[in-house]
Structures are given as C-alpha cells and as structure tokens.
Design goal:
Function: Participates in various redox reactions through the reversible oxidation of its active center dithiol to a disulfide and catalyzes dithiol-disulfide exchange reactions.
InterPro entries: Thioredoxin (IPR005746), Thioredoxin-like_sf (IPR036249), Thioredoxin_CS (IPR017937), Thioredoxin_domain (IPR013766)
CATH superfamily: Glutaredoxin
GO molecular function: protein-disulfide reductase activity
Distance between the termini: 43 Å
Keywords: Disulfide bond, Electron transport, Redox-active center, Transport
Structural class: alpha/beta
Number of domains: 1
CATH topology: Glutaredoxin
Helix content: 40-55%
Pfam family, one: Thioredoxin
Strand order of the largest sheet: 1-3-2-4-5
Order of helices and strands: EHEHEHEEHH
Largest sheet: 5 strands, mixed
C-alpha cells in the first residue's frame, strides 16, 4: 500500500474509519521531510494494514495549526481514532517499525478505560 495525501476534509474520516493511521505532516521545502519520505513510503509497503497518510502543511495550514504542528516532519499515530503517538523529526526505519509494532500490540480499549478510571480519582 502506498502513502496517501489527505486534506483537512479527509482527516477525521481517515483517522476514525481505519484501525491504525500514521500521519506525516510535511512540506515541500523541508529537507528532513524529503529525507524521511522514502522511509515512510517503504513502511507503507511493509505494513499494508496501516494507513500511511501525508498532510502537506503548506496546503493544509488550518489542519497543521489545529494539530499544533510546530516542527516538521511530525508523525502522529492513531489507533481507533485516538492519538497514541506523536514525534517531531525524522525516525530511522527500525524505530518506525518498532513504533508500528507497539501500536499494533496496544490494547486501546483497555488504555482508554484505564485513562477514564484515572480521571475519576
């Protein structure tokens, strides 16, 4: 599966309609973003069960602002619509694979229940 560009209009549906979604916030002028792109694309081929989305922060400035993007590349990961990971800067392929493996293993329902229980205290 290849990476897919998403817009502000597509963002919420993409994140909520898929089990696991990675979102790479990037810009054309960003050197580190360009350097990370092949790693991200290779990851999309290696993990076809994970949506690898890309948001161009220049074209989608409102979305970048809403997501509080202050540095690029920034990678966000969502599981069942909940953000479970956020990292600014490039990730080596082995680290990206490790993050994806951890997200796959994460019991998001248990984590949400635990978080709700902690708020009650």
């Amino acid at each position: 599966m290849s990476t897919q560009d998403i817009t502000t209009e597509q963002f919420n549906d993409t994140v909520t309609d898929n089990e696991i979604v990675l979102v790479d916030f990037w810009a054309e002028w960003c050197g580190p973003c360009k350097a990370f792109a092949p790693t991200y694309a290779a990851s999309s081929d290696k993990h076809p069960d994970v949506v690898h989305a890309k948001v161009d922060t220049e074209a989608e400035q409102g979305l970048a602002a809403a997501a509080e993007i202050q540095a690029i590349p920034t990678l966000m990961a969502f599981k069942k619509g909940h953000m479970v990971f956020r990292h600014s800067g490039m990730l080596p392929a082995k680290d990206l694979d490790a993050v994806i493996d951890q997200i796959k293993e994460l019991d998001i329902d248990a984590a949400i229940a635990e978080q709700a229980k902690a708020k009650e205290v």
